[in-house]
User: Fold this.
Amino acid sequence: MRIATSTLLAPLFLCLTLADTTQATSSNDLTVEVGHHVIFSYPGLEPPTHLFDLIKQGKVGGIILFGENVDSNLSNVIENFQNAYQQSPTYAGFPLLITTDQEGGQIRRLPGGPEQSAKQVGQSTDPKGAATKAGQDAAVTLKEYKMNANLAPVLDVYREADDFTDQYGRSFSNSSAVVSECGLAFITAQQKAGVLATAKHFPGLGAALKDSNTDEEPVTIDLTLRQLHTVDLVPYKDAIAAGLDMVMTSWAIYPALDDKYPSGLSKKWVQGELRGRLGFEGVTITDAIEAGALKSFGDDATRGLLAAQAGMDILLASGRNVSQGEAIVNGLVAALQNGNLSKDLFSEATDRILGMRKRIQG
Ligand SMILES: *[C@@H]1O[C@H](CO)[C@@H](O)[C@H](O)[C@H]1NC(C)=O
Ligand SMILES: *[C@@H]1O[C@H](CO)[C@@H](O)[C@H](O)[C@H]1NC(C)=O
Ligand SMILES: *[C@@H]1O[C@H](CO)[C@@H](O)[C@H](O)[C@H]1NC(C)=O
Ligand SMILES: *[C@@H]1O[C@H](CO)[C@@H](O)[C@H](O)[C@H]1NC(C)=O
Assistant:
């Protein structure tokens, strides 16, 4: 799989090395390579024509859907995205990533299962069986809408009743062992059914207080590294060993390891802990780039660059704003050209993304 992907990318790499002499071509090819790294979003039921144009130009890696995008026509819209992508010069036989948050219970963007919240799954008489069913149900629902990647399950280990993660029943349990067992069962069942799984929010939002929402404001989680290792990161070990497709990082700051950067902008978390200590070789994806937690880290393009510099593979432009995705793509292209982003690090990420997309069942 990796070998075929490298073959596909060979022309792009060639252009990178010829950057000085073939500036115009190189810039265009760079834009296309960068496009694989950015997931776009749009407002309302009718996608803007401009989004279809960008897809045809190969500048879009995938699309995230929200409630406001969902009606009974959505699977036709998604089919049109894929048809547009097939006209792109870089189309290589595998689809755009089409994703949403279908966790279960109250957190479902699409009508359909999983009916139970993660909490109900964890509290059931047979948590493993219930989590398997939840993973299968999520896959069935996503496939009905022609989607191929779910931003679930949540592996956060909640601490207090009604805290940030528990208030909507998004955490399987306050016990790492139960979260591990359920997370693993959900991931395995969903991936077996042909839908990519994403474990979130690394290294864990389980200790976040009720009103600590990274979508709105900066959040600091003051756990010791030992607490993080022995509670929050336990479910990731098992999921990674089982071949988990994607990990979504959180935007909280964990001063025990990095007191400056939120996890998804932190080399220490992304490269040190996730890739280094935990040995994750799959694809990393950010949480929403427009999140309030990042307000001191510049505009969308700057945040995207900081995340890519930290080693994040996919950047989530989920502000229902096509320009946001474009701004991130343009920022990364400029950074690759001016040497502010390592081409080697970035190409490894491209390889991982395309390798994963190649596995998607049609
Ligand atoms: C369904 O979506 C397609 C693709 O965007 C669009 O062309 C068509 O007009 C939509 N139909 C309805 C009934 O909304
Ligand atoms: C988990 O929550 C239950 C109550 O729902 C409590 O009895 C138990 O002590 C908690 N466990 C931990 C590890 O906090
Ligand atoms: C859309 O994204 C662009 C680029 O980041 C930004 O300048 C603009 O303010 C955003 N628009 C909205 C409505 O958020
Ligand atoms: C490189 O990126 C950093 C942020 O990571 C920024 O401060 C700096 O201005 C950038 N340099 C160039 C030449 O764009």
